[in-house]
Predict the 3D structure of the following.
Amino acid sequence: MNTYFRVILLTAVTMLALSVSTETLGAKKEKKRAHAKCHVALSDGTETVVFWFIPKQKIASYAPKIEGKKIAKAKGKVSIYKAFECVADSDEFSSARAQLIDSKTPR
């Protein structure tokens, strides 16, 4: 009976330790990613602001990576023709045009 109790206790402690370490890893990973917004020109000729959830250290250099990606619009999917700038969601764009488009973009 004593051995049975030890096995149950060891199993419970192991499960608890694994769940705590998994939650900690998930929290650390989430801190490394951030919400970003990018000012882009679309293949249909319009300019807009699109939102991404990307690694923090890649926000400033992310614009060229999204060119050619497709995004959904009311009339279907369109591709990103040119990405001008990406910034953290809480930051301001450097150009006045991007700031104007951003202020009109629903969140």
Notes: The radius of gyration is 22 Å. Residues 53 and 70 are 16 Å apart (CA to CA).
